[in-house]
Amino acid sequence: MPRPSSWVSxxxxxxxxxxxxxxxxxxxxxxxxxxxxxxAAVAEQMRITERTARRYFDHHTLRxxxxxxxxxxxxxxxxxxxxxxxxxxxxxxxxxxxxxxxLVEVAxxxxxxxxxxxxxxxxxxxxxxxxxxxxxxxxxxxxxxPEPLLMRAxxxxxxxxxxxxxxxxxxxxxxxxxxxxxxxxLRDDAARLRALIPHTGRRSGSGLWAVPDDPP
Length: 216
Known about the structure:
- The chain is mainly alpha-helical.
- The protein is built from eight helices and two strands, in the order ααααβααβαα.
- Strands 1-2 form a two-stranded antiparallel ribbon.
């Protein structure tokens, strides 16, 4: 695979900084791929070279693109501390256990294939689930959790299932013939989480899950 140009690498870093300002981390290689695709699309639409198209990706455009990416996952409450959000979803203990196990797989598999961001996020979610379980005020066998936590966890697990499907290297102690079973288990775990999320459409406007405004 060809290495990205210096412009793509530098611009991806700037875009990453804009995303970090609103509480999001995205692997650099994914930002580089995104920018390469966007530049190619602009060049084709305007019938210009890709080098010329790069001129349209100024700081304002990158900030707008960062907000666009954040809005695409605003249901995950980007930048919010999950422990401070309302705990509105009753998560059964079997689902809690399966989710923790799946997030461990995310940390192991994504770490070798995507860089440090997704494993760090997975481990942070595991820690949060542990605190929520410790702080649970009520009778088991359910633990109440914030809805955005389920959204974040489901996305990470689905992304990892895609990596497994695409043939990413498995840990040394995992046999290759386990791949289809691992992929199915991850997809089942993500589906189990999404089944807990109500489809109310209440997140269409501003409010708890709105993307933060740009600072003045």
